[in-house]
Amino acid sequence: MDIFGVPSQALFGQLLIGLINGSFYALLSLGLAIIFGLLRIINFAHGAQYMFGAFVAYLLLNKAGIGYWWALLLAPLGVGAVGAAAERFMISRLYRVDHLYSLMLTFGLGLIVQGVFLSEYGSSGQPYPMPQQLAGGHNLGFMFLPNYRVWVIGLSIAVCLSAWFLIERTRLGGYLRAATENPTLVQAFGINVPRLLTLTYGAGAALAALAGVMAAPIYQVGPLMGTEMIIVVFAVVVIGGMGSIMGSILAGFGLGVVEGLTKVFYPEAASTVVFVMMALVILVKPNGLFGARS
User: Fold this and answer.
1) Paired residues of 126 in beta bridges
2) Helix, strand, or coil here: 41?
3) Where does the chain have alpha helices with state H?
């Protein structure tokens, strides 16, 4: 059966791919939005943290025999701890100077992490097996629906909405937002603001690592996987609104679907449609679709 002159299997297949890509866009842009919205840091190391999470899962499996399910927990904790240490001992020293310095620092840290894995594994990707529990899929008649893809989309939605609820609807989220606006006042209430900011950066890095673990069975694990993804993710964050949590989530999934549909109807524009939309949004609404007015 054809839909708009396109075979239904091709259309729904690209929609599924768009939702998969959108899941990773949403998770990564969520981490970027948390770090920028609460710490005012443009974290150029985010792509390296995504790649780092995938490699931690790969190393856990090949060096320690620890599979996918434990990697979902251990990789974000490990990368989050490394990110928290970087914030505590390096990034925190730059809060009182121009934001350009923290941008350059995180860019340099990302290049260092990428360079370490490039020197060890080269630019080629490493395979990571899909968990047996999620192998196979279901034939819906008009398309084949792989179980693992459904899991990725569902987990991404659950994590994104949980993070939004934590930041926007809980007391802890209120403390986080207040600490960025008036840290002296929050400190007067007995809250350790530096520790809170450190944990925030660590949480953003952990979200990137979680996305990396989820991506490992779909894409090959390679040192350049973060570089290829982060360029699009920064565009997603700009479209959703810098610092907007829900904006990043909605823009991530939405742009993934738009990208998938573009591959069906106008494949030549699939690699540029996100950036065209970013340019249009900046021209019409510079703060992004969901960003707060400056």
Assistant:
1) 221
2) coil
3) 8-39, 46-64, 68-89, 99-121, 147-169, 171-181, 183-188, 193-215, 225-240, 245-265, 273-284
SS3 of residue 129 by DSSP: coil
| Cα dihedral 95/96/99/103 (nearest 10) | -40
Q: What are phi and psi of 266, to 5 degrees?
A: -150, 75
Residue 60's domain is classified under what CATH number? 1.10.3470
Sites in the chain below the pLDDT cut of 70:
1-6, 180, 292-294
CB neighbours of 286 closer than 8 A, spacing ≥ 6?
A: none
Task: Determine the Cα–Cα distance for residues 264 and 2; give it in Å rounded to an integer.
Answer: 12
58 in a structural domain:
yes
Residues 6+ apart with CB under 8 A from 153: 19, 20, 23
Residue with tokens 């998969």: 20
Domain-located, residue 237: yes
DSSP string, 140-192: -SS-EEEHHHHHHHHHHHHHHHHHHHHHHHSHHHHHHHHHHH-HHHHHHTT--
Per-residue model confidence (pLDDT) at position 286:
87
Contact between 60 and 75 under an 8 Å Cβ cutoff? The reply is yes
Per-residue confidence (pLDDT) for residue 3, from 0 to 100: 60
Q: Give the model's pLDDT for residue 292.
A: 63
CB contact at 8 A, 32 and 46: yes
Total count of domains within the chain = 1
* CA–CA dist 174, 200 (Å, integer): 13
The answer as to whether 142 is a domain residue is: no
CA distances from residue 55 to 25, 30, 120, 203, 215 in whole angstroms, order as listed: 19, 21, 12, 18, 11
Which residue segment(s) compose the domain that 175 sits in?
22-127+147-284
DSSP code at position 220 = -
Q: Tens digit of pLDDT for each residue in 130-151?
A: 999 999 998 877 778 899 999 9
Q: According to the model, what pLDDT value does residue 4 have? A: 59
